[in-house]
From TrEMBL:
This protein's name: Error-prone DNA polymerase
SUPFAM superfamilies for the chain: PHP domain-like (SSF89550)
One BP annotation, GO: DNA repair
Species annotation: Ectopseudomonas toyotomiensis
Signal peptide: none
Family to which the UniProt record says this protein belongs: Belongs to the DNA polymerase type-C family. DnaE2 subfamily.
The EC number(s) this enzyme carries: 2.7.7.7
Keyword field: Cytoplasm, DNA damage, DNA repair, DNA replication, DNA-directed DNA polymerase, Nucleotidyltransferase, Transferase
Reaction(s) catalysed by this chain's protein: DNA(n) + a 2'-deoxyribonucleoside 5'-triphosphate = DNA(n+1) + diphosphate
Presence of keyword Iron: no
Length: 1022
């Protein structure tokens, strides 16, 4: 055992300083037989949970600490001796961070007024001893002088000077390493990160770089050459005193939601009984009653009542404010959550596993996700802050890590490459890359992969990828506490105003037992609420998610045709390809549809067997009689995480808590490993019980697929509710639904142009933007038969300000506009707003076509105060020639992003026929396997994780959409054409399988020049 403990060590959570992860540091410390390792990241505990996990894995003791620099004062390493010291450290970091902008801190002398019992300090002296009396009074018998030697030219003199300083003031000295990396080999990366932090090339950052590579975890014999034995021994004395462990944290839920006369248990019972009576108005069914009693008993045993009360209170507030919300995820497994109104999914109608949600063995708070309208979620967030106060509520953090493009940008800049080469290198990575660019990418972009400087860039990029880059805020994961949060974890400012975040990543909370309530945003809820409102104003009919007609045949027929542009969850290219094959006919079919196009089922080779069984092409059988109840609802094929958990319980004799540990391992195996013990245990037990080796291997391929993107049945069921609602509205109220989609954009796969084009193909009339009729939002107007049409809103005009549009609305209420000048004066429009209206064609009702409108707005002069209200002399209106159809089309796309005139491909159809390109309508008559040529606007490119490099491209012409498959080899050969084209010609062959039609690309041709400047924007790789 080494007689040393490292007390000053930075991990990569000291952003752009530390060059090693906690796991790397603890693994090396274990190899060197260190007694303990202190992780002392600069004024942060963001990485301490990861360090705690690494400590438990390696057996090396963790000391919790932080390096801080006091403003106009000394530099210290603060170490938590016990829980009291840890709480004091959290409070110091919180105060320092809260008074500074995001990413910085200011620690002042006055922050040390509060008692600092339990906090040890190592003073890193720069030779100025003036702060020593103050430090000695703050840390009596708890202050040391840190001696850090790194084989510099003056080590001997420095050691002597520091020992004299310690002796003169009767202060114990201790050896420290100022460690920035686990091994010397990381020095190049550490230099690079220092240059990045100081916004300098490495060649110019000499003053900020270390003189050598000694700031790593060194062997004891190396340390013994530098430090006297008593300094090394002192490190063990300090390590022995530091007994704090993160497992000591005692977290409690808020209590104030319970009214007088009740405790949390009794009040939760009251709310559940009220909700159950509302849910089951004819009496609670026996099965539901038994499930409620079981859940309430377990909730009381584990003392989670306050958690459920907290979530119920948030949902209650949202509904009182008419904010649409929907609980999802594992909460859908709970009858209590259904009774409380947290989720709309009745768990008695499904076989969802309650232990997926709450487990006696796991003894951790359940994770409840609640989605709110994406445009109104901030109201809910601020309610939580008001309800509990800034000291007791904060958002959890998300650790943003380096990916390929970002890492190569920072490294290339630090190594001095010019901006154009940096951009080209980043483009070589692509959005989806999590590694350095491949050599063929570099060659295509004109780089020599063997160039020494470029090789250095690529090596450092590979090391930097995956490192923490900064802390950002979670979209809505709240941590709420009975006591001040900064007694558990430091709190800092978020980038957004009026928000604070804790310093721990969302994935770290479970390990230390902190409650998280997810207040999430979902754009589809905004769409549904808007659509319900439009229908109520137009027809007087009030719909809700609960009252929409169930199991509507027309809706399922539309879904089976893959007529789902704009529908929730089943609008993607892959989902639309699956719909005609699965042909959903009832709600549970939709649950499977939502979940089946996911990495788990695909990688586990479960999709095709399920489809064959559903279509009667192969018999339904089960691995064993005992597994028939588990897999019966999915025809003997495991599709969901819950089924894998049930399989482990039934076939491998797991307990429910152990099955949940399997689920956690599924979700984390790519990052942390940990699946191998489950593989061995499951395989051995299942083979003993007679299951085949092939079946167990297939199950594990699926488990690994869930690690890429876990999608449990509980999530699928909750999403299927919204998918059905969106499809019913699209089927029966297409104008209102399209209108709501456009008003809620940006969201989903499709742009407003594609949504409106789809609506027009469904015989919905769309009317142009017009200041006589248009509000800010798109709205509904009756046609001559009383059916709703869509009036485009002023929001469609690119660059139009909402306050200008609102003033137009208000002015119009006082009477129709006489002319452009009247509009401009009454709505107080400046020249920019007038020009945008003219270019967008919104003034056609006042002055005619765009050219006339441009002339008219140019003649509007600003009124001086003396002549306010006095009309200017009218000018003679010139009869300017109208723009051509092509000019109108170009301007429509440039100003509105869409057109109500002919589709661009309609104007080009004659030219396309001349080069033998078929339309999407003509494609319907082509037989399977025939060669075809098509052309269309590129509206989307996708590269799913499970597609082995295949790119799916969606083309649009005047008649509809064409789905194109580009195999990996072709995508590599013609990457530039594939990625950069706005209009693409595909030469290939048609493939028709189970009613699903694709064009398999053989050659790609960029036809963008035919568009002559048309501004069309595709949605790529989302």
């Amino acid at each position: 055992m080494s007689d040393y403990a490292e007390l000053h060590c930075l991990s990569n959570f000291s952003f752009q300083r530390g060059a090693s992860s906690a796991q790397e540091l603890f693994e090396r410390a274990a190899r060197l037989n260190y007694r303990a390792l202190a992780i002392t990241d600069e004024c942060t505990l963001a990485g301490i949970v990861r360090a705690w996990e690494a400590s438990k894995k390696t057996g090396v003791k963790l000391i919790v600490g932080s390096e801080v620099l006091i403003e106009k004062g000394p530099k210290l390493v603060l170490l938590a001796e016990n829980l009291t010291g840890y709480q004091a450290l959290c409070g110091l970091i919180t105060r320092a961070r809260r008074r500074a902008a995001k990413g910085t801190y200011r620690l002042l002398h006055e922050d040390f007024v509060a008692p600092l019992d339990g906090l040890l300090a190592i003073w890193l002296s720069d030779g100025d001893a003036s702060a020593l009396p103050w430090l000695s009074s703050l840390f009596p018998e708890r202050l040391w002088l840190g001696v850090e030697l790194h084989r510099g030219a003056d080590d001997t003199a420095r050691l002597q000077r520091l020992l004299e300083l310690a002796g003169d003031h009767d202060l114990p000295a201790v050896a420290c390493g100022d460690v920035h990396m686990h091994a010397r080999g990381r020095r190049a990366l550490q230099d690079c990160m220092s240059a990045i932090r100081h916004h300098l090339p490495v060649a110019e950052a000499g003053a900020y770089l270390f003189a050598n590579g000694e700031r790593h975890l060194r062997r004891f014999d190396e340390l013994a050459e530098l430090y006297p034995p008593e300094l090394l021994a002192q490190s063990l004395c300090i390590a022995e005193r530091c007994s704090f462990d993160l497992g000591e944290l005692d977290y409690h839920y808020p209590h104030e939601l319970v009214p007088a006369g009740h405790d949390p248990t009794s009040w939760l019972r009251v709310l559940v009984e009220r909700g159950a009576a509302e849910r089951w108005r004819e009496g609670v069914p026996t099965a539901a009653r038994a499930q409620i009693e079981h859940e309430l008993a377990l909730i009381a045993e584990l003392e989670y009542e306050s958690y459920f009360l907290t979530v119920h209170d948030i949902v209650r507030f949202a509904r009182e404010q008419h904010i649409l919300c929907q609980g999802r995820g594992s909460a859908a497994n709970s009858s209590v959550c259904f009774a409380l109104g947290i989720t709309e999914l009745n768990p008695t109608h499904s076989r969802l596993l309650f232990e997926r949600f709450l487990s006696r063995e796991r003894n951790e708070p359940p994770d409840i996700d609640v989605d709110f309208e994406h445009e109104r979620r901030e109201e809910v967030i601020q309610y939580v802050f008001r309800r509990y106060g800034r000291t007791r509520a904060a958002l959890t953090a998300v650790v943003n890590t380096y990916h390929g493009a970002g890492a190569i940008r920072d490294v290339a800049k630090a190594l001095g490459l010019p901006p154009d080469q940096i951009n080209a290198l980043a483009d070589c990575c692509g959005r989806w890359s999590s590694g350095p660019p491949a050599p063929e990418r570099l060659l295509e972009a004109g780089f020599d992969p063997q160039n020494p400087l470029l090789r250095r860039v690529l090596i450092l990029t590979g090391e930097l990828i995956g490192f923490p880059r900064h802390l950002s805020q979670h979209p809505g994961g709240f941590v709420i506490s009975e006591h001040a949060l900064d007694t558990l974890v430091p709190v800092e400012n978020a980038t957004m105003a009026e928000r604070t975040v804790i310093q721990w990543d969302k994935d770290d909370l479970d390990r230390v037992g902190l409650l998280k309530v997810d207040v999430l945003a979902l754009g589809m809820l905004s769409v549904l609420r808007r659509c319900f409102g439009l229908i109520e104003r137009y027809r007087g009919t009030q719909w809700t998610l609960a009252t929409l007609p169930k199991e509507d045949p027309a809706t399922y027929a539309m879904i089976s045709r893959a007529d789902t542009i704009g529908a929730f969850q089943i609008e993607s290219r892959a989902q639309m390809a699956m719909l005609p094959r699965l042909r959903p006919k009832e709600f549970y079919d939709l649950v499977i549809q939502v979940a089946i196009v996911r990495p788990g089922p695909i990688q586990g080779d479960m999709v095709h067997p399920y489809l064959r069984r559903r279509n009667g092409e192969e018999p339904i059988d089960y691995p064993s009689d005992e597994l028939k109840p588990v897999f019966e609802r999915t025809l003997g094929v495991p599709l969901f995480q819950e089924q894998v958990m049930e399989l482990a319980i039934v076939a491998a004799e797991y307990t429910p808590g152990e099955a949940d540990e399997l689920r956690r391992s599924m979700a984390a195996w790519k990052r942390h490993g940990g699946l191998e013990p489950h593989r061995q245990r499951l395989t051995s037990r299942m083979l003993e019980k007679g299951y085949t080796q092939a079946f167990t291997e297939r199950i594990f391929r699926q488990i690994e697929g869930f690690g890429s993107y876990g999608f449990p049945e509980s999530h699928a069921a909750s999403f299927a509710l919204l998918a059905y609602a969106s499809c019913w509205l699209k089927c029966h109220e297409p104008a209102a639904y399209a209108c709501a989609l456009v008003n809620s954009w940006p969201m989903g796969f499709y742009s407003p142009d594609q949504v409106l084009q789809d609506a027009r193909r469904h015989d919905v009339e769309v009317r142009p933007v017009d200041v006589h009729y248009s509000d800010w939002d798109c709205s509904l107007e009756p046609d001559e038969h009383g059916e709703p049409t869509i009036r485009l809103g002023l929001r469609m005009i690119r660059g139009m300000r909402e306050d200008d549009a609102r003033r137009i609305e208000q002015a119009r209420q006082c009477g129709a506009f006489r002319d452009v000048e009247d509009l401009s004066i009454r709505a107080r429009l400046d020249a920019s707003a007038r020009e945008r209206l003219a270019d967008a064609g919104a003034l056609s009702g006042l002055v005619g076509h765009r050219y006339q409108a441009r002339w008219a707005v140019a003649g509007v002069e600003e009124q001086l105060p003396l002549f306010a209200g006095v009309s200017a002399p009218s000018e003679e209106i010139l009869n300017l020639p109208a723009p051509s159809q092509g000019e109108d089309l170009l301007t429509d796309y440039a100003t509105l992003g869409t057109t109500l005139g002919p589709h661009p491909l309609a104007l080009l159809r004659q030219a396309l026929r001349a080069i033998r390109c078929k339309s999407s309508r003509e494609l319907q008559a082509v037989e399977h396997g025939r060669p075809v040529s098509i052309a269309g606007l590129v509206i989307g490119r996708q590269r799913p994780q499970t597609a082995s490099g295949v790119i799916f491209v969606t083309l649009e012409d005047e008649f509809g959409l064409v789905n194109v498959i580009v195999w990996h080899d072709l995508a590599e050969r013609q990457r530039r054409v594939l990625v950069q084209s706005q209009m693409l010609r595909i030469d290939g062959h048609l493939e028709t399988v189970d009613g699903v039609r694709h064009v398999i690309a053989g050659r790609l041709t960029d036809m963008t020049t035919m568009l002559t400047g048309l501004d069309i924007r595709s949605r790529d790789f989302h």
